[in-house]
Specification:
Helices cover 85% and strands 0% of the residues. It is mainly alpha-helical. The chain has one domain. The longest helix is centred in the last third of the chain and has 48 residues, at 100-147. The termini are far apart.
Length: 149
């Protein structure tokens, strides 16, 4: 659905209830922020776990260590994109225009832009977590091979 069409439909749905429409738009922005917080939490968890298991992965060899560093690097890129997205604060009340449709368009555009950026961040976080988990598996297999002899 096009942004203009979505804005028109919302204004029709909320006809005569302008404050309810602004609340609806604010809630959508809030949902995007919640999604960002989940990603930031995953990033923080990854970095915390590295403090406990990083040395083990490094001792397991260069492949495990390289995968761990790659994973942390990708998670860090995702974290930066995420923080950059959520720290660009702009209140819905700053988007208020003379016509409610124009307000809805402005907020929907921001929502979509933030959602796209968070989707990019999520790709980096997931790739980083996958690399990190591969490092854990390599370390586990390496440790298992050392004990089997």
């Amino acid at each position: 659905m096009e942004i203009q069409d979505e804005a028109n439909r919302l204004c029709t749905l909320y006809a005569g209830r302008d404050a309810d429409l602004v609340t609806h738009l604010s809630n959508q922005i809030g949902t995007v922020k919640t999604y960002a917080q989940v990603l930031v939490g995953l990033c923080g968890l990854t970095i915390t776990v590295t403090g406990f298991s990083g040395a083990h992965m490094i001792r397991a060899g260069s492949l495990s260590a390289s995968l761990m560093v790659l994973g942390i690097g990708l998670v860090l890129v995702g974290l930066v994109v995420c923080i950059r997205t959520i720290t660009l604060l702009r209140w819905v009340s700053q988007e208020l225009r003379d016509h409610l449709v124009d307000t809805a368009v402005a907020v929907i555009q921001r929502r979509n832009r933030q959602q796209r950026m968070l989707s990019v961040a999520a790709v980096f976080v997931v790739a980083g977590l996958a690399s990190y988990l591969a490092a854990v598996m390599v370390a586990a297999l390496s440790t298992g091979a050392n004990f089997s002899g």
